Amino acid sequence: MKRIKSALEIALERAEDLAKKSGDTDGKLEKREEAKPILARFFKDEIDAEGLWKELKEKNDSELLVVTQRLMAESLGLKISPEDIKKRKEGILAIESLKQDNNSSILEQLLNQITMLVENYSQERERIEEQFKNLVEKNSRLKIKPVKTRDGKTVMQVQSDVDDDIKKKVSERMNQFEEAYEQKFNALLEGLKEQLDAN
Hints:
Blueprint: H1 7-22, H2 26-43, H3 49-59, H4 62-74, H5 82-96, H6 104-139, E1 140-148, E2 154-162, H7 164-198
Antiparallel strand pairs: 1-2
């Protein structure tokens, strides 16, 4: 059975891929490796934002601060839970308070916009899924079809059949919805990363 990766593992893999594509220096890759165990403890709730702050303060490394924040930002996504967004927000802001050129108010504003976008995405997705469910129920037809069982017998089974045009419309609408929110999310995330890199 295939092992399911954690959000941290996925985020760190994505960050490594981006680092390789952007031609990060070996120094930044080393900082990423140094940040991984710290973030792992943070994401596993072994340390909170204050513990993260203390640990990074002891290291006294400005480059490590930026790299850790970027990794945390790269772990954000549209389908992340509100609790996970809050945790990342607290972590990013705690780290920001350690920097000489503190940009907390702008970062907090961007993180609040990301939080609102993710909440809107979840609510809108639920609403659209409910609309599609109702549409499918209204436009489905029941058919009786012969089906083979495991023991080789043929039995008659009632199945719901939905028009292909309706399936296509549902799929197209959901794709448009996903793309629109992905674009908005990516724009906010890029703005966040730019602010993290600015100081």
